[in-house]
Structure formats: C-alpha cells, structure tokens
Design brief:
The protein is mostly helical. The chain has one domain. Helix content is 66%, strand content 0%. The chain has six helices and no strands. Helix 1 (9-34) packs antiparallel against helix 2 and helix 2 packs antiparallel against helix 4. The longest helix has 26 residues, at 9-34.
Length: 155
Amino acid sequence: MVAKHRKPFACYLLICLHIFLGIGALFGGGALIISPDGSILSMPLKMLQNSPFNNFLIPGLILFVGLGILPLITTIFLISEKPSKIAKKLRIDKEKDLSWNSSLYVGFILIIWITVEMYLIKEVALIHVFYIFLGLLIQAVTLLPSVKKYYSNNQ
C-alpha cells in the first residue's frame, strides 16, 4: 500500500463543513425531538399544515440522523487514515474511499432535505438559501481534484 500524501487544505475545509453541518443538525434535530411542538426553536406547528406530519418529531429524527450523525461519521472517515473493513465494503465508487462517497451523498441529502422542506412549508427563507449553498459547497469541495486524488485508492 502506498502512503498517503499530505492532506490538502481542501480536505480540511471539507472536514470543517461536515462538522458545522453535523453539529448544527444535532442541535436542531435534538430540539425538535425533545420538543415536537417546535417551541424550543420558536417554530409554530402551523408550518406543517401542508406536510404529512402533525408535529416535528419525525422531521427532527430525520434531521438528527441524516444531517447530524451522518456528516459526523463522514468527518471521522475523512480524518481517518485507515478505513475500517466495513467502510471498504460500503463504498460505491471503488476508486475512492467511503469517506469521499459519503461526503458527496451528504451534500445531496442536504439539498434534497431543504428542497422538500421549502416545498412542504411553501416558503423560502434566507436560511434555506444558506443551506442549499452549503450542500452545493460540500459537493463542490468533494469534487475538487485535490480532494478526489487524496481520497483515491490508487495514489
């Protein structure tokens, strides 16, 4: 096995983006799980009138796991120099580490989450634009040549 080169700055940026997203989603999702009526975050249940949900419990769980835990696990994989045996089996693109694949998918999940949220609540707020941009930024940094090369199995 060939030793990895020094980690490029873009990889550290990607790690920071995942940490930012993960911690924020853990707090936001956790607040919705603890208080499904949305009161902790000052979110009225009226926001859910066009959605299939009666309260924020299920959206909170999805947010907590899909955009909280998953990005933080991805962060661990991005930092780790030695992927686990499970990580090697779960990757879809065999030319890249699971961390690279997972990072790209986190960007997709975030964009889809925000798009569905805007559709269901029939509103676009500045925070939606910010998180769409964050999802696109995660994908763009993941696709940078230096990041692709670093997380390639064929270095």
